[in-house]
Design goal:
The structure is a homodimer of 348-residue chains. Chain A is α/β, with parallel strands linked by helices. Chain A contains 14 helices and eleven strands. In chain A, helix 10 links the parallel strand 6 and strand 7. The two termini of chain A are 38 Å apart. The model of chain A has no long low-confidence stretch (mean pLDDT 90). The structure holds a DNA duplex (30 and 30 nucleotides).
Chain lengths: 348, 348
DNA sequence: AAAATTTCCGTGCACGGTAACGGGAAATCA
DNA sequence: TGATTTCCCGTTACCGTGCACGGAAATTTT
């Protein structure tokens, strides 16, 4: 079609055989320096691009992409991310891409380490990685680079590495947007932030920047607003409800509530049994339970980043890079913040 | 890899040759009824799927997808849609898919008709179609069906046809959502709808349902709200500003403004020179000018459907259907309503 | 019954690339 | 100088399909 130049053309023009050309294309040696350069020159001039079909047909192997995620419990954020693997387009699957999931315990750095060695043993052609532990990830990434395995970050990323691309949400801005959704742009008097207790694992609080963005918005738009925090234990519903009761007994004037992680659904039973007119409740991520609460009106709006789509797009970008040698246009601009309300969530 | 069964296997099992098998696969006759059935039976049993690579390699032709859109002026909605063609993934392009754009004058049914005949002459393997004229589209679609050319609707669709898929926005619900964005969920006193004058062309008002959804929301949530309409001529800026001046002189209490098409940007100069605190302005579609106004704060929020993405996904769905024989999972559920504010538009 | 068609089917090459195999020439060694 | 090794490179057999070509068998025509 468009790309008429084949490996045979190059062979003819260089006076060599296609076997030799193939050897330089795959850098598998046994080629004299002179021949190597001659071939490279012609390839450059003609803009030769290998035919993917022929290559896949002959090679047959296809490629393997490892997806490394925290293990996702039922209904959790990471389960949603996991589901993205099943959603990769038929077109990239047709390109011979297989994909394998590796999970780790998000609270145990050593589990992550263990998983990383498993990944390296599987010798994938590319890795999609949701990193939680900075130090361990740095090491893993070095191993990957050494082996020349490209990798894509999902959800969060390390700053200064040579990753191929990053699919995630800008945390600070998402907090800012969240505040805008909560207030509707008008000044409010007070707001309650509900946070979860964190045991001191080695991972930093992933919602820290989001909270910062929220606070900054409030300072700019509602400087006199009082912002309170309470902490709950995700595994203790009764304690959670108790904490809410206590807070609102002491601060009956507060109405709006926000959570910066995906667990707003933990508050739903309490919210349902304590309805307040004009209360706005804003959370993050389109977990099934969150969406259900949104539809019922218990939650006002969700800021979603669709981890499933992120994983899907990460795999696709990686596949294009590996199979087609097409680099993604930008490294970091694949970031979404979608506003969900009960009126558009059905079409999401 | 996974699909080990080849055309040769079938040939061997049926005692025929691969030439014959190929003939039944492509229905090009010259096969006895007995052989035909024998082959079909084995194909069924083994679940034979042709190897896309080999097929593309041997056939070479690839496929042609025609994209039929209204011609888009600079900065218009349809120009945005057009840009989606350039955004189709490298993976589907690698599948040998070429794409050709056909445009028509959105105000002239005969122009559409003319374009349709051109499309038929080009003999594409699939058609992406943004239909505006109901009658002419019905006829065109019949022609396509007769030739067995699959087609996908974009932006709007005909109700009862055998289209492969539809990518668009649910109009009624978008109006409903729009009202929710405008009011923030609270009752308001009055709102101004700005509409464009329509010459009596054969196409119906495409925003009619959207307006209906808006009105219904207002009736339910702000029953006492007064809703006014004014009409402007898109080609007459001064007249537009004059109309706005007149209206607001007579109704100084009205603050919020909404438009149901993509032309909210027409009001921007007037809005900028007549700032009102607490005024909410809501429009549709992420045209560059609209987005710019959103960033400056002149427009409060936009409901966007990303026509470019719709076209892109339509092409991809069609390509998968043609090349890989994979039907899209659902016909109609590819509909988006994205809420854009100045705080998330940068990451859109 | 022989000739002329028609129907049906097998053979073989092409598509572009991969990789094993083997061999000629140069370099090293005996 | 002859034998052996090393370095390069050409040859060749695929990968799974598409399709043109030609021929055998079945059918019709004279």
């Amino acid at each position: 079609m468009e790309n008429k130049v084949t490996i045979n053309d190059i062979a003819r023009l260089t006076g060599l055989s296609k076997g030799t050309v193939d050897r330089v294309l795959h850098k598998r040696g046994e080629v004299s320096k002179k021949s190597y350069e001659k071939v490279m020159k012609v390839i450059e001039e003609l803009g030769y691009k290998p035919n993917v079909f022929a290559s896949l047909l002959a090679g047959g192997k296809g490629c393997l992409i490892a997806v490394v995620l925290p293990s996702g419990e039922k209904g959790s954020y990471w389960e949603l991310a996991e589901s993205g693997i099943a959603k990769v387009g038929a077109d990239v699957e047709a390109l011979g891409v297989r994909t394998q999931l590796f999970t780790y315990d998000q609270y145990k750095p050593e589990s992550f380490h263990q998983t990383c060695t498993e990944v390296l043993e599987a010798a994938p052609d590319g890795v999609v990685l949701a990193p939680l532990f900075k130090e361990e990830t740095s090491q893993f990434v070095l191993d990957l680079e050494e082996k020349g395995i490209p990798y894509v970050f999902v959800d969060s990323r390390l700053e200064s590495e040579h990753y191929l691309a990053y699919f995630g949400m800008p945390m600070y801005q998402s907090g800012y947007l969240c505040a805008d959704q909560l207030t509707g742009g008008f000044a409010i008097g007070s707001v309650l932030i509900v946070r979860v207790l964190r045991d001191k694992s080695r991972q930093a609080d992933p919602t820290k920047n989001r909270r910062a963005g929220f606070i900054d918005y409030m300072l700019e738009h509602s400087p006199e607003c009082s912002v309170s925090n309470i902490f709950i234990d995700p595994n203790d519903p009764d304690g959670t409800y108790q904490a809410l009761d206590n807070y609102f007994k002491a601060h009956p004037e507060t109405r709006h509530i926000v959570m910066f992680n995906s667990r707003i659904h933990l508050l739903v039973p309490w919210l349902s049994s304590h309805p307040v007119k004009g209360r706005r409740v804003v959370g993050f991520d389109n977990l099934p339970e969150n969406v259900a609460a949104l539809k019922r009106g218990t939650v006002s709006s969700l800021i979603a980043q669709r981890p499933d789509v992120q994983v899907k797009r990460a795999i696709e970008a990686l596949a294009e890079a590996i199979v087609l040698q097409k680099l993604p246009p930008q490294k970091d601009s694949f970031m979404h913040m979608d506003i969900l309300t009960r009126y558009n969530v059905d079409y999401y």
